[in-house]
Structures are given as C-alpha cells and as structure tokens.
Amino acid sequence: MTIHRHAVLPALLVAALTACTRGTAGEVDVPTPSATVSSSAGPSSTPFAVSDDPIAIEQGVYRIPGSDWSVADFTVTFPKGWTAQYGHVFLKDPDSPEEQGFYAVLVDDIFADACAGSDGRSMNVGPSVDDLATALLKQSGPIKSGPVETTFGGYAATRVDLSVPAGFDLSRCDVKDVGLRIWYSAPADKNFVLLTDAAMSVYIIDVNGQRQVFLAGSRAGTSNADRRELQTILDSIHIEDSA
Q1: Quick check: 96 and 208 in contact, CB under 8 A?
Q2: What letter would DSSP give residue 183?
Q3: From the CA atom positions of the chain, what is the Rg in Å?
Q4: What is the pLDDT confidence band of residue 241, given thresholds at 50, 70 and 90?
Q5: What span, in angstroms and rounded, lies between the C-alpha atoms of 84 and 75?
Q6: With contact defined as beta carbons under 8 Å apart, do 152 and 128 qualify?
Q7: Among candidates 62, 145, 144, which has minimal Cα distance to 104?
Q8: HSE-up of 106 (CA within 13 Å, CB side)?
Q9: Bridge partners, 194 (sequence order)
Q10: Above 90 in pLDDT, residue 227?
C-alpha cells in the first residue's frame, strides 16, 4: 500500500494516511463554506471543502452531513481557532506539538499487529460496539485502557484509549519511525496511525443498529486548557436519528 505524504494529517491525526489521491475517498469537492452560526432556526447542513491544507472554521454551530465516514448527520459547536482538513477532519494547531483534533469514521476491520500493519494480518470485526472494542483490546502493539462505558452524541458509547509504549522500536514497523497502524477504513479509504506522542480515544457508538466511531485525541504538547476545549467540543456533538 502506497502512502502519499499529502494525505498525512498534520502529525496528530496521521490517522488519515490514505492509499488514494485527493477526491477518491468518497469526498466531493465543494466551495469553502462560511460558518453556520447557531440561531433560533438551528444549523443547516454544511459540507466542508475538501482540501489537503487545513481551512479555518468560523466560530459557530455546524451540521455535518452523513457520508462515507458517518452513518448519520451530526451537529457540533466550534470555538475560534479550529480548522477542517480533507473535508471531515477537525484540528486545532495542526502540524505542531500542540495539535489536537477529531473526526468520524466507519471501521470494519483492524490490523492484528499494529506494528506490522498492512504487512500483517487484518482482523475482520463483527458489527457490534463490543466486537470492535474487544478487537482493539486484543490488538498487539498499543497500550490500551478501557473499555469505559460513556455517552457520545446523545447515545450510549464505549471508549477505548490508545497510546504507543515508551521506547517502542518503530524501525521495524510498516510505518517506520512514525507510529503504529491501527486500522484501515475501507468506506473512507483512510488509515489510522497512532503517533508516539499522541493519546487517542476511540469512541464506539451504536446509532440505531449501525456502528459509528469517532476518533479524538491530542499530542504531548497540548495544554490542559486546550484538552478541556476539545472535550467541550466533543460534548457538543449531537448525532441525528438515522432511522
């Protein structure tokens, strides 16, 4: 599998390493939108422009339409200072030691050994929330904590936290000296690579019988204030009823 540099999320969410060129992952080029600020009428559906570079998001409330990485529309409130990349990845301080962010993704299988990644075996994951949480806990490579029962977007959710063990020899991994490749998402044509200085949380949700995943996290240099801001944004997410 070829990894194109342009598709690597600025550091933290290298989670979007991709095997395809821009626009071939189910993404549709659209004009750069202005913010849809919360009002009595509520937010309207707002697709973000598909761009390899982060595009500034105006402060406001947005409805993100369902897509190849989301089983349903969801709304989210952004403060100042956030950006959108590739049309569906949301970041603050991209390409810096303070980077943090999140995005929605659909996951059907993960790599059995995150170091071997695509050079090793893939584990097909059953359709339930528990199936994916159990598979992540069995995966070789990362430090795992959880599962933690929580809520996300108005639904019951399970959270699994991931990080790279200190001193892990990445020189022998398929993404050499970068991180551990956790999964490849066929619907979005994206990989999730866990960086050595990142702490990532996988939120797994059942949305009316359909599994939805949100990936969120930050790098070691992110301040506590910014981590709290990310949590506030995550808490603002409301997933629409997909039934």
Answers
A1: no
A2: E
A3: 17
A4: confident
A5: 15
A6: no
A7: 62
A8: 18
A9: 180
A10: yes
For residue 202, the tally of other CB atoms under 10 A from its CB is 27
- Distances from the Cα of 140 to the Cαs of 41, 165, 196, 235, in angstroms? 48, 11, 15, 30
42 CB-contact burial (10 Å; exposed 0-12 / middle 13-18 / buried 19+):
exposed
- Alpha carbon distance 50, 68 (integer Å): 14
Residue 40, C-beta contacts closer than 8 angstroms, at least 6 positions apart: none
Helix (H, G, I), strand (E, B) or coil at 16: helix
Q: How far apart are CA 233 and CA 225, in angstroms?
A: 13
* Integer Cα distance of 124 and 171 in angstroms: 26
Neighbouring residues of 224: CB distance < 8 A, sequence distance ≥ 6: none
Q: How far apart are CA 229 and CA 169, in angstroms?
A: 33
187 in Cβ contact with 149 (< 8 Å): no
- Position 33, amino acid: P
**In this structure, which amino acid lies at residue 63?**
R
Q: State in Å, rounded, how far the first CA of the chain is from the last one.
A: 36
Q: For the chain, what's the residue count?
A: 243
- Record the pTM: 0.83
Cβ atoms of 13 and 215 within 8 Å: the answer is yes
The one-letter amino acid code at 240 reads E
pLDDT, tens only, 15-43: 443 333 222 222 222 223 333 333 333 55
What residue type is assigned to position 74 of the chain? F
Q: Give the separation between CA 67 and CA 11, rounded to whole angstroms.
A: 24
